[in-house]
Amino acid sequence: MKRMQAVVDDEVVRRARGGDENAFRTLVETHSRDVFRLAYRITRNEEDAEDTVQETFIRAYRNLDGFEARANFGTWLYRITANTAIDLLRRKKRHEGRHTPLGEVQPGVAGAQEGLVFGHQVRERVDSALVSLSELERTAFVLRHCEELSLAEISSTLDISVSATKQAIFRAVKKLRSSLAPLRDVSRTTP
Questions:
Q1: CATH class for domain 111-191?
Q2: What is the C-alpha separation between 143 and 75, in angstroms, rounded?
Q3: Which regions of the chain does DSSP assign to beta strands (E)?
Q4: What is the per-residue pLDDT for 104?
Q5: At what angle do helices 73-96 and 21-43 cross, to 10 degrees?
Q6: What CA–CA distance (Å, rounded) separates 188 from 166?
Q7: What is the pLDDT of residues 13-26, one digit of tens each?
Q8: For the purposes of burial, counting CB atoms within 10 Å of the CB of 109, is it exposed (0-12), middle (13-18) or buried (19 or more)?
Q9: Is 67 within 8 Å of 13 (Cβ atoms)?
Q10: Minimum mean pLDDT among 136-150, 157-171, 176-190: which range?
Q11: CATH no., domain 1-98
């Protein structure tokens, strides 16, 4: 399926390079959902993800002539998305100062709502843990464990070596395990 999409993309990219605006619109329609999903997983914010999607396609349009036809368009677009999301996070960090982690989670409500409260606590803790990762670690982790890209694809997308990719993912997993360990302990003691 991916191979077939790549062949279709090649033809559409060729037409878009020739000035066919409908062809570029087709690329946007084809890839916007995947771009948004990746942007959201990196930024953890819907508005930032939407801004990232818009900026990604603007950058892609402006640099379409620089796209090498032998490369996969989707991977090239992921690289732009990841870099755009990271740039946005860095700009926000400079303007807003450091992110303050979410406060400690309140104790759960008794009865049937305990499971819902615990699920909400887990989501909050995961979001907080993801935000605490560096931009590179978060992006590498998301590309590997959410988008299910290979190490070579992630390496190409982030323009780093496979070894650096492995290290970023390893550091991310280690930090996430550490951040989420208290939840694991709580779930073991809960009946």
A1: mainly alpha
A2: 11
A3: none
A4: 38
A5: 50
A6: 31
A7: 999 999 999 999 99
A8: exposed
A9: yes
A10: 176-190
A11: 1.10.1740.10
> Which residues 6+ apart lie within 8 Å of 131 measured at CB?
44, 99, 101, 138
Q: Please state the rounded mean pLDDT for residues 119-142.
A: 81
Distance between first and last Cα of the chain: 45
Stated pTM of the model: 0.70
Query: What pLDDT sits at residue 188?
Result: 54
The number of helix segments (H) and strand segments (E) in the chain equals 8, 0
Q: Report yes or no: 183 and 127 within 8 Å, Cβ to Cβ.
A: no
> Residue written as tokens 């409908």?
22
Residue 6: C-alpha distances to residues 82, 125, 163 (Å): 20, 37, 27
Are 115 and 122 spatial neighbours (Cβ–Cβ below 8 Å)? no
Residue 111 confidence (pLDDT):
44
- Are 85 and 139 in contact by the 8 Å Cβ rule? The answer is yes
Q: What is the pLDDT of residues 151-163, one digit of tens each?
A: 998 998 888 999 9
Rounded CA gap, 128 and 105, in Å? 11
For the chain, the structural domain boundaries read: 1-98, 111-191
CA distance 22 to 5: 17
Q: Which SS3 state, helix, strand or coil, does residue 138 take?
A: helix
Cβ-contact 155, 94 below 8 angstroms: no
Given a contact cutoff of 8 angstroms between Cβ atoms, the answer to whether 124 and 102 are in contact is yes
